[in-house]
Design goal:
0% strand; elongated; 153 residues; mainly alpha; 6 helices
Amino acid sequence: MNLLPILLLLALLAACTPSEPFDAELAARADETEEETEDTLEPKLESIQKHVFDPHCIACHAGSTAEQGMRLDSAGNSYYALVNVRSNQNLLQDRVEPGDADNSYLIDKLEGTQLSGEQMPKDSNPLDAETIAVIRQWIDDGAPPPNPDDDEE
């Protein structure tokens, strides 16, 4: 009996088998890293809504009683309340001037350099510099509107 074909078949099968056993813990960590990446603050309004406006702003800026009439309770409402809208506290600035974070009253309010009123978020710790930098980037990128498919009203 010729063993050569059988040995070749066994060698071929061995080559197709992974050399390292499946590591479930490593796979779980990779999944967690992917989820963390998806849940990181990005310079997109949907992300800013989720990571900044929802946890820090909607206590005062939601519904028909929103302070300054500025509803920040959804990405769509936030866009229409901020972008190219004149500030009630500083009539020389828009709340968000697309492409110009340095001339956007929202940034002044977040950084505490505003001419009137309190630094935002009100009655809370100021946002960290990294968070404000992401909001600045969104504005400097032209303050694009939210993707309608991602906004839940």
